[in-house]
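re: the backbone from monday

yeah here it is again, tokenized this time
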């Protein structure tokens, strides 16, 4: 089937449902949330009852526009149709994984490698080449002849700018910029949106950034960098892992570095790892080797132990394999 047809089929299925539940991945970013908000707006505008269902309440960072979502309360999800957005695998659905798997009508829209494997959903649209799920949603709405409203456009801008690093990453294409241009021409205040999304920090977030910078270390002749935030540091500032989300790419900024990892405790017995890379280094391989996944230049995994020194050794060893072409 032609791409445009596949896209239209997804939208038609959503529009034909009396109610739709859009599922974010755990700890949604702005690509995920913006995509869901754009879809929800388009569906509600057409009389389809639609909710966004998250695993946990949204973090403070994500509430800058007064965003309203439903937090999963357990049990089955009573919607005519469920659609996983920016998420193509059960493990990324957290507590909602079983309710999704047991549902009779499941859709999936994603841009992660390996997203939407056999059996995950009845109808999938997964394009790993798309820089953002927001770009897929834009193309889908166009394919279904659904015009952009200012509200839809605003959410799509949040989504696309988030996953392209504000249109900096190599994944950004002329098409991406034309989408942004169309949104700007509609009168959306993109400068204000970006300020809300990227240029605001709390005091404790800035202090934690300082702590994290003090942990930066170089490995493999300066090609690999690591940084971390421990449980103690979080406690010291009364902070949580949402306060360090913006730090994931920080160690990659060092000029000699081609691959980096940012590690942070998720409670005493778990460590989340955010990998980043430059050029053609496929850091997703390191993440996959440790049970995670993601994109070529941005990937992640969760280690099921809390020993930070051991975690640092583990992730550096995996990145070294990628560096040497052994992985
Ligand atoms: Mn995304």
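seq for it, each position gets an aa:
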């Amino acid at each position: 089937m032609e791409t445009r047809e596949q896209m239209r089929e997804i939208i038609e299925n959503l529009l034909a449902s009396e109610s739709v539940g859009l599922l974010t991945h755990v700890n949604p970013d702005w690509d995920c949330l913006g995509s869901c908000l754009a879809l929800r707006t388009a569906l509600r505008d057409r009389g389809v009852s639609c909710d966004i269902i998250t695993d946990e309440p949204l973090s403070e960072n994500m509430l800058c526009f007064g965003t309203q979502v439903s937090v999963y309360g357990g049990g089955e999800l009573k919607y005519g149709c469920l659609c996983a957005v920016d998420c193509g695998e059960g493990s990324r659905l957290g507590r909602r994984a079983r309710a999704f798997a047991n549902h009779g009508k499941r859709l999936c829209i994603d841009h992660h490698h390996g997203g939407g494997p056999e059996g995950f959903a009845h109808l999938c649209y997964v394009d790993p080449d798309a820089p953002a799920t927001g770009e897929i949603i834009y193309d889908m709405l166009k394919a279904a002849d659904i015009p952009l409203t200012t509200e839809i456009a605003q959410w799509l801008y949040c989504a696309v700018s988030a996953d392209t690093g504000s249109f900096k990453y190599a994944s950004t294409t002329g098409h991406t910029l034309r989408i942004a241009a169309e949104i700007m021409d509609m009168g959306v205040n993109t400068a204000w949106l970006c300020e809300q999304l990227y240029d605001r920090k709390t005091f404790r977030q800035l202090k934690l950034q300082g702590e994290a910078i003090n942990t930066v270390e170089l490995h493999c002749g300066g090609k690999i960098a690591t940084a971390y935030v421990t449980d103690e540091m979080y406690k010291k500032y009364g902070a949580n892992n949402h306060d360090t989300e913006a730090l994931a790419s920080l160690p990659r900024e060092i000029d000699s570095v081609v691959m980096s990892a940012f590690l942070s405790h998720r409670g005493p017995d778990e460590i989340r790892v955010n990998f980043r890379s430059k050029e053609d280094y496929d850091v997703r391989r390191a993440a996959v080797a440790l049970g995670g996944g993601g994109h070529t230049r941005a990937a992640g995994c969760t280690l099921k132990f809390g020993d930070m020194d051991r975690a640092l050794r583990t992730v550096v060893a995996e990145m070294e394999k990628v560096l040497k072409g052994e992985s």
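The chain has two domains: 3-197, 203-323. The chain has a mean pLDDT of 96.
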